[in-house]
Design a protein that fits this description.
Blueprint: H1 2-20, H2 41-59, H3 68-72, H4 81-94
Helix pairs in contact: 1-2, 1-4
C-alpha cells in the first residue's frame, strides 16, 4: 500500500492540487469522502479521475474506480487515502 500511495496516489494529488487549487494532506488517514473532508463533490470526482489517469500512465492499468461495486460496498473505499489505496490494490489484482 505504501508504494501505491507514494507512486500513484500522492502524485495524482499533486496534479489535482495544481489544476484545482485544492490542497489535500498526503497522509493515509486523510478523509476523502464523508464527514471531515475538504473536498466538494466536484473535487472528489476530479480527484478520482486524476488517480485513474496516473494509474494508466504509470502502471498501464485502465481501472475504473467509481464503479457500482465501490458504491454498493458496506464500507466506502473512498473514506481515506488508505482505504482508497487498498481498494486500488484489490482492483489491480482483479485485472
Amino acid at each position: 500500500m505504501d508504494d501505491l500511495l507514494r507512486d500513484i496516489i500522492y502524485p495524482a494529488l499533486d496534479d489535482f492540487s495544481d489544476v484545482y487549487d485544492v490542497t489535500i494532506e498526503k497522509t493515509p488517514d486523510t478523509v476523502l469522502w464523508g464527514e471531515g473532508t475538504a473536498l466538494s463533490s466536484f473535487d472528489f470526482v476530479n480527484l478520482i479521475l486524476s488517480i485513474e489517469r496516473v494509474l494508466k500512465e504509470r502502471r498501464s492499468a485502465a481501472v475504473v474506480l467509481a464503479d457500482a461495486s465501490a458504491f454498493s460496498s458496506e464500507r466506502s473505499p473512498f473514506q481515506t487515502l488508505a482505504t482508497l489505496a487498498a481498494y486500488i490494490e484489490e482492483k489491480l489484482g482483479d485485472d
